[in-house]
Batch of 3 targets.
Target 1
Amino acid sequence: MKKILFMMAVLSVVAISAEVKEGVGKGYKGDIKLGVEVEGDKIVDIKVLECKESANIGGKALPKLIEQALVKQSADIDNVAGASRTSKGFKEALNNALGK
């Protein structure tokens, strides 16, 4: 019983420490809305909540942008070639979510 209570307490602390913030930026075909999960100063995950970008260009760029942002822990990332407006909108949304 003590182990179960301890595990529940640990899971509660983990759940409380993670926070999802939302940000919006202007892409090529409309708004890009992101959900950014942060723990303290660390970006843990980024999800695209809304996006009207084309699947062939913007849709292919977003996973690359997410990967770069997670590695650099910042919106200070390179644009994806051929998707400069999507890249700009992604960075704007990420900065808005992070309060920058």
Target 2
Amino acid sequence: MKAVTHSPNAAASPASRWRLRGAAALMGAVLMTTSCWGTGSETPSSAPTIPSSPESSPPPTPPARLTTAWEVTVTGSGPLIGAHEGLVVAPDLATGGSKLRMLNWADGSEVWSVDISGDLTGFERPEKVSDMVSGQVALWAKTSQQRRSLFVYSTADGSLIGRLDEKPEHYLAMAASGAIYEMDTSNEGSVRISRAPSVKEAHTKQWSIDLPEEAREWFWVREHDGVTDFCVDGQAGPVHEYACYLSVHTDDGSPVVKDGVWHRSAWVGNVLVGHKENGPLKGFDQHGKELWTSELQDGYPLGWGDDLVYVTEGTHRSFVGLDPATGKELWRRDWDEGSFPGLVFDRTPSPQDGPLSVFVPSPSIRTGVLDPKTGQVDLVDHQITKAHDVIPTFGGALLIPTGDYYAPTWIALDPGKPGTLWDDVLKNYDTYATLGDRLMASKGDRIALLA
């Protein structure tokens, strides 16, 4: 069975109209678990605020042993959704599942179950919405014609809070706050983006903004520090499995940077770093003031606490450390295509969740941890071949299916360290997913929490 992969905050991963190139196969890929913003201390008002990573809180390390905390059997189970109040199990419509259930995080016992087959009549499959506001759980459902509807349920009793149908030439996204963002692409040459406070108030627009054609993307959003980033999944390239292309102020929708529709962008503290396609890399403060310009070749910026790392594209790959306040090059690490021949994925939401790890699967799996302040990385060859996917999990461990694609052998690695982790418990399941800081496993109708 194919692995369940983790994609931050993604409600869906549809194809883009013009910029989305389609993700390449993982074989020959590079994985870096990284972040796009940090939080921390203040600097004088004359300089942009660059929050620092807490030196007193080193990244966690994987536990030495992993066990099955609990296991339950849920007939007709589909996508698993990590809510604040418990584990929500959506129905698998293809096998006749009809119930939405919530299980207790402590022991897997059923808190409630509700038959939602009436809500999902005419739909083929539900898809989860991650990172929901407390008290709610949301599902996307698709028809055979790829029409989508959003269903939001109460975690108190499973009752339906609201439904929102996606209209033709309109795209919807739901933020972790419960806010609804809608993109109207019905007017040729421009798009209109609106924000509503919740699914129940979806027709109460707090603001609407008009943007040029290049903002036309199916998208997901993340809200942080008073701004909203618009991002798209599946963009090929050496850094992200997604790319962010627009940042606006959450309160009024005004773009952080005038004409700020990017090819790729990332936050490093309160500095927004991005570039137009084939354009120079630029840094801006949170008010849109340009701080610097760098003539680096095309690539991907990524932020890790107070560090800015830029990865260039092309056959000659360079990892470059930059000062986010000035754009000054601090260090450069060059690799040729034979050493690092594929993609780099951005999956970890904060520096405290794990190291900045590098994964090279071919010809055998090699892992290491990149020091974002120096560019130093030492790779360990694990002498394991045929990796199909990588799931970053707690403590910075990497969970990897190898061997037969349909009946894989699962291994877990601590990046940059020899040996494997947790071999005994992994053989009991065939699918894994990270939900927040929890690792879920399943096989058929069996669902387990690993701890």
Target 3
Amino acid sequence: MRSGDRIGGDIKRAELDLVAAKSAAVKPAGLTVPQYAALLALSEHPGAPAATLARLCLTTPQTMTTILQNLVALGLVERTSNQWQRNVLENRLTEAGQARFREADKAAVVVEQKLADAFTDEERAQLRALLQRCSDVLSEK
């Protein structure tokens, strides 16, 4: 198979372009894309433990732990012990974290909307279905 016929490169290029656009969008808020993703997940799932956030953000638990440590150091996330499982830390946005998330999210939504606007409703549904098929094929055992 010739390199020009390989679909993996097309998918990777689109992913890199999306990450670059989102990175530029959230940078003025002082965030990286992984940090923004964690804040987004926490805004939707307050109290989620690191393992849950890792699954939601499509990263490893080890990477999420590092992201959370950095967000705690920035004062954007607080971690507290779960009252029933002391070894599980719950994660929540601080007031500063909520404000920083809202700032970054406004810019990230512009990127997402620009991408969505490039397709009709039908094309977006088709694109999602095709990408899901890619994931299904690649995750087959």
